[in-house]
Structures are given as structure tokens and as C-alpha cells.
Amino acid sequence: MAAVIWVCPVGDCPVRQDRPGSCPDDLVQLVREQTEPGAPAAAPAAPAPSGLALDCPWGQLVDIPAEELSIGRSSPAFRGGGIDHYDQVSRAHARLFWIDGRLHLDDLDSANGTFVDGQRVTPGTPVALSAGQELRLGLDVPCRIVQLNEFGEPV
Predict the structure, then answer these.
(1) C-alpha of 68 from chain center
(2) pTM of the model
(3) Fewer C-beta neighbours within 10 Å, C or N terminus of the chain?
């Protein structure tokens, strides 16, 4: 039986793991690579440094890196993931980032707004987030912050 490995499609990026997600180095969606039977499998990568991910309605699970994640139609982490079909999402819609070990969200003055648990986020006024909270991009694009287990799967 061949092993399925997910690899970063950018240049010589060494990121390889045993689950889908985004490359933390280049913030692009990992692609499936099937190895030959008997070929040594690459060691699985550790889960996202933060242990959190963004669960998107188009079926994409985007790891939230320990630095910053830009959300929008032009964001590298969302290329090929289906976000292009949602015209409520701006090219540069919002960003997720960390302050003192806590995840925060800031709206980037998006055309249709960003909401956390139904409350509109004021651009320039970051909001603290935790697993289980729902983000809404525009009026109709719900995304959920999910906790990842030790295998990088949603809890």
C-alpha cells in the first residue's frame, strides 16, 4: 500500500507531512504526493505551531501559523481552496495574529466586514479569539476556529 504524503509545491521547500493543510513556510496549500510501495515514508511534520486552524466552508482546513495568517481572496494560504467563489470576501479581508500567546483577529477595512460570533469587528481594533468561535467573512461566509489534536486533526 502506498503512503500518502502532503508536500509544499513551492520550489525546494522541504515541508512534508501526513495530513493536508498549509505549508507554514510559504503559506500555500499542500498537495498530495503518493510514494511508491516500499519507499521510506517521510517523517510526519508536527501539527501547526499554534494548534489551531481555520475551518472554511469550502472544505479547506488552514493551519494558523505561529506568526500571522492573512485572510482574503489574494492570500497565498487560500490559493486553490475555493475562496475565489465567495465575492463577499475582499482580496485582503482580515488577518489572524498572536499577541502574548493569544490569537487575535483584525479586519483590514474589508468591504463587507468581518464578524466574530455575530459581532462586527471594527477595523484597527483587534479582537481576541479562541477555539470554537465562529468568524463570518462578509454576510455569508462562516469559518470556525478549531483546535487540532496531536495528529493535526480537528478535535
Answers:
(1) 10
(2) 0.67
(3) N
Q: Is residue 154 part of a domain?
A: no
Q: How many CA atoms are closer than 13 Å to the CA of 69, on its beta-carbon side?
A: 27
Are the C-beta atoms of residues 11 and 28 closer than 8 Å to each other? Answer: no
Q: What distance in Å separates the CA atoms of residue 31 and residue 23, rounded to the nearest whole number?
A: 10
Looking at the 3D structure of the chain, how many domains does it have?
2
Higher per-residue pLDDT: 41 or 89: 89
Question: Does 67 share its domain with 25?
Answer: no
On the 0-12 / 13-18 / 19+ scale of CB atoms within 10 A, 39 is: exposed
Question: Are residue 129 and residue 62 in the same domain, yes or no?
Answer: yes
Based on the fold, state whether residues 73 and 115 are members of the same structural domain: yes
Higher pLDDT, 70 or 41: 70
Q: Give the structural domain span for 68.
A: 52-147
Note whether 20 and 61 are same-domain residues: no
Longest dimension (CA), the chain: 54
| Separation between Cα atoms, residue 99 and residue 6, nearest integer Å | 30
